[in-house]
């Protein structure tokens, strides 16, 4: 993806630089809170960032063929939150977000093509109602 985008624009301030360096690709806050909630609810048997299937789902239940992605609202462009795009380097950021969304769709499509069920949870959902997120996973698990 880096080739398609070119180099990222330079940070506009030290605060922006610090903020951007703090962004993580795995073990994010929403992921960690979901895993803690699942553990507390007695849901076990998942693998974290499992490389046994396309897309390395945030959580995978290999025996049940269920993949769970916990998408950050900003980077994955949550349809509910409608968060703004940075005002500077607009072309770069539009392309970056388009590629992120396309990658997310491709990962889900590839998993479904090999018989997996995919659940995408959004960061805002985990903040608003974690119990509902856990229940959605439980329902998927019990349906298989």
Features:
7 helices, 144 residues, 4 strands, alpha+beta
Plain-language structure description:
With 144 residues, this protein is α+β, with helices and mostly antiparallel strands. The chain has one domain (44-144): VSR Endonuclease (Endonuclease, Chain A, 3-Layer(aba) Sandwich), CATH 3.40.960. Helices cover 49% and strands 12% of the residues. It has seven helices and four strands. It has a four-stranded mixed beta sheet with strand order 1-2-3-4, with helices on both faces. A hairpin with a 4-residue loop joins β2 and β3 (66-71). α3 (29-40) packs across α7 (130-142). The longest helix is centred in the C-terminal third of the chain and has 24 residues, at 90-113. The model has no long low-confidence stretch (mean pLDDT 89).
| Multimeric state | single chain
Overall strand count:
4
Query: What does the radius of gyration come to?
Result: 16 Å
Report, as a whole number of angstroms, the end-to-end distance.
35 Å
Which stretches of 5+ consecutive residues score pLDDT under 50? none
Let me know the CATH homologous superfamily.
VSR Endonuclease
Short précis:
With 144 residues, the chain is an alpha+beta fold.
Reconstruct the topology from this structure.
Layout: H1 2-5, H2 14-21, H3 29-40, E1 47-48, E2 59-61, E3 66-71, H4 73-76, H5 90-113, E4 117-122, H6 123-128, H7 130-142
Parallel strand pairs: 3-4
Antiparallel strand pairs: 1-2, 2-3
Helix pairs in contact: 3-7
């Amino acid at each position: 993806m880096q080739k398609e985008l070119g180099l990222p624009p330079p940070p506009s301030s030290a605060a922006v630089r610090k903020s951007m360096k703090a962004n993580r690709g795995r073990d994010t806050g929403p992921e960690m809170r979901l895993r803690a909630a699942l553990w507390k609810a007695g849901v076990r048997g998942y693998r974290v960032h499992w490389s046994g299937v396309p897309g390395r789902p945030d959580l995978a239940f290999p025996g049940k063929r269920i993949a769970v992605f916990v998408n950050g609202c900003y980077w994955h462009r949550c349809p509910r939150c409608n968060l703004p795009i940075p005002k500077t380097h607009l072309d770069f950021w539009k392309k970056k977000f388009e590629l992120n969304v396309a990658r997310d769709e491709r990962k889900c499509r590839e998993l479904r093509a090999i018989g997996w069920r995919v659940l995408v949870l959004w960061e805002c959902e985990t903040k608003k109602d974690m119990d509902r997120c856990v229940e959605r996973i439980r329902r998927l698990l019990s349906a298989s």
